[in-house]
Amino acid sequence: MQERMLFRVYRWPAAILLSALAAYWLFGVFIPPLLAQSPYISSLAGMSQRLALLAIGVGTITTTIYALLQSIRLWRWWRGKGDACTNCGGMVEVRTKKDRIYTQCLACGVRK
Ligand SMILES: [Zn+2]
Questions:
Q1: Which of 13, 21, 96, 98 has the fewest CB atoms within 10 Å, i.e. is most exposed?
Q2: Is the pLDDT of residue 58 over 90?
Q3: How far is CA 14 from CA 67, 85, 87, in A?
Q4: How far does the centroid of ligand 1 lie from the alpha carbon of residue 55, in Å?
């Protein structure tokens, strides 16, 4: 139960970090040698590497801030200050679907 809740708390920061690493590999490792083969567009290889550094930088900063905010929410829940599920006592997350606002438990998945 706790593992599922931790996975749900940190899934988006992990996805952002993995996307940034994939973008770094794509623009920094994979594409520059392909661009360097052509005499017409070989100057774009440097631009691709700068884009890779930008992607990993923005991704790392975004992941750090997002994970820190999620950790604060988790810490507040552990101290009993955050909203808790009435079914299992797990941490809940406020979500919206169309015009409806509801809470969903990150441990058992119950919506209220
Ligand atoms: Zn629950």
A1: 98
A2: yes
A3: 8, 24, 28
A4: 36
Unique residue bearing structure tokens 């599920």: 85
| Residue range 61-79, pLDDT digits in tens | 999 999 999 999 999 999 9
Going from the Cα of 15 to the center of ligand 1, the distance in angstroms, rounded, reads 24
Domain positions in the chain are: 2-82
End-to-end CA distance of the chain: 19
pTM for the full predicted model:
0.82
Q: If you measure from the C-alpha of residue 80 to the centroid of ligand 1, how many angstroms do you get, rounded to a whole number?
A: 15
Query: Taking ligand 1, which is a single-atom ion, which protein residues have CB atoms under 5 Å away?
Result: 85, 87-88, 90, 105, 107-108, 110
